[in-house]
# Entry
Amino acid sequence: MQSKSILVLHGPNLNLLGLREPEHYGSATLDSINHALSSKAKSAGIALESFQSNSEAELVTKIQSLATNKADFVIINPAAFTHTSVAMRDALSAVKVPFIEVHLSNVFARETFRHHSYFTDIAVGIISGLGAQGYSLALDYAIQHINRSN
# Structure
């Protein structure tokens, strides 16, 4: 039996969480978020890999790797690439792995350019504005989705 797995992708500047604009992004660090997600997934018997990059090309390559290294679910915070990356959208469409789009801040309460996402219409769902808890809620859903599918 193949083991169940989730890939968590973090876009640009999320490596600065805890330092960067805490009024928008909170005080949790990326390491603390990843640790909490990993612990929760392990308790559910699911492997979890987290990957962060400031490079669109690296994120596209990681998504494309799912064509041969299938994950059961993806949780993605595309960060600034939300509003610009047709390439990441196309890669997610190509690999056909269900995903949830997560944003720490409420993108709809911010600058107008942040209101458009290249991912939302192909995502299972979107969680926006709940801070680090948004990742945890996305993981809860992903675990339920995987367990229903198996």
User: Anything to note?
Assistant: DSSP finds five helices and five strands in the chain. The domain at 5-70+86-149 is CATH 3.40.50.9100 (Rossmann fold). The chain has one domain: 5-70+86-149. Strands lie at 5-10, 47-52, 73-77, 99-103, 125-128.
